Amino acid sequence: GVSYITGAVFYSLNKKKYANKFSVNEKSGNITVKKGVKKGKYKLSVKIKAAGTDCYKAAEKNVAVVIKVK
Q: Residue 31 is inside which H or E element, if any?
């Protein structure tokens, strides 16, 4: 492995249920609300995946995010 590269982190919607309403930037984790989404609260599950390095094991975690569309 290349020791000077830090582990990459990737973000994605865990379930595709809301893929037509929201998008998650794979590299930054920014969540975008798509046009036409009705007002209300939406509970999304975002998967955060960290690539391993020489020093750290690869890991992933699911995080609940509540989005309130006004």
A: strand 31-33
The Cα–Cα gap between 40 and 55 comes to 43
58-69 tens-digit pLDDT: 899 999 999 999
DSSP 8-state class, residue 37: P
Cα dihedral 69, 66, 61, 17, rounded to 10, equals: -60
* pTM of the model as a whole: 0.79
The predicted model gives 2-7 an average pLDDT of 55
How far is Cα 22 from Cα 60, in angstroms, rounded to an integer?
21
Vertex 29: Cα angle to 20 and 67 (nearest 5): 55
Residues in the chain, overall count = 70
